[in-house]
Each structure stands twice: as structure tokens, then as C-alpha cells.
Design brief:
Radius of gyration: 28 Å
Helix content: 55-70%
């Protein structure tokens, strides 16, 4: 499962690394937003969408990794079984004596 997560992350990283890197290295100045051509504005919006998707995907993969680590820890914990007079009947009732109401 961990290998699948890593492989998926690498594949998706390769897919959007170029556009995201371009945007991070050379972000257009915010004061010139109204001067952008429609094509540039579209490209900028697409890069922002890619970055949002990547961040969301990274959050989801991080949660999957955390759940995987948690499940590994849970598997190592031994099962605890109750001992004593309460476990004898198995229904959780407490029978202390023989008198009835």
C-alpha cells in the first residue's frame, strides 16, 4: 500500500511539476492583472487550479500515509480479553448471588 502511494505521488508530481514550477519561479506581478492577455490569464488560472489540486492531493496522500502508519501500530497491539467472573457468562451481566427479585 505504501509503495502504491509513493508511485502515485511520483506520477502526479511529474505530471504537473513543470507548470507549477513555472508559476512559482516567475509569478506575474499582482498589479498587472488587468494587463494580461486572455491567453495569459487562462494559463495563470490553469496553473492556480493545478496548484490547488496538487495541494489537495498532497493532503489526501498525507492522510492516507498517516492512516497506514496508524493501522500498522494498531496491528501490533495485542487483543485484550476480560478475565474474571464477569467474563464467565459472556453477556456482560453482573451476577453476584443467587437471590432473585
Amino acid at each position: 500500500m505504501m509503495a502504491d502511494i509513493c508511485k502515485e505521488r511520483q506520477e502526479l508530481d511529474r505530471r504537473d511539476l513543470h507548470l507549477a514550477g513555472e508559476h512559482r519561479r516567475f509569478p506575474p506581478p499582482p498589479s498587472e492583472d488587468h494587463l494580461l492577455s486572455p491567453r495569459r490569464q487562462y494559463q495563470r488560472d490553469e496553473v492556480k487550479k493545478l496548484l490547488r489540486r496538487r495541494q489537495q492531493r498532497d493532503r489526501i496522500l498525507q492522510e492516507k500515509e498517516e492512516m497506514y502508519e496508524l493501522m500498522k501500530k494498531v496491528e501490533k497491539v495485542p487483543a485484550v480479553r476480560p478475565l474474571g467472573s464477569f467474563a464467565a457468562r459472556g453477556d456482560g451481566s453482573r451476577s453476584f448471588g443467587t437471590w432473585r427479585s
